[in-house]
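Supplementary Note 3. Input sequence used for the single-chain structure prediction.
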Amino acid sequence: MGFILSHMNPPFTYTEALAGESVVGLRLQEVAHALEIEEEALAERCGMSRSTFYRRKQRKGPLNAAEIDLLDRHSAIFLQAAAVFEDAAEARTWLQTAQYGLNGAVPLDAIQTTAGFREVEKLLTRIDYGVYA
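The predicted structure, written as discrete structure tokens, is reproduced below.
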């Protein structure tokens, strides 16, 4: 599966989320690296403005609950896609491409909502079991 996937931590546990900035800061960096997107782009996807991201990065401030939830979704969906496609690069491509099974939505955009996240999870499960429609 490659270095990135084998060294990436699973989604947050409640205890980790309470641990604060050290775990969260590293996780943001790790997930951005795995998805091959800029940290600031991932932070924006998690609901942070650019200025908030840089301020928190400089002061090592923690993320709030909503930001942790969105970061966790990105982590979880990448790990699921990489497991389904058995290749991190293929997973990244799939996650960034409009999918027929999501009515033309891009999976990384769809996971911004809980309902969209569930739909992406279901689609990946169907692909894993060979049920594409």
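The chain has one domain: 3-128. Residues 1-6, 17-22 have pLDDT under 50 and may be disordered.
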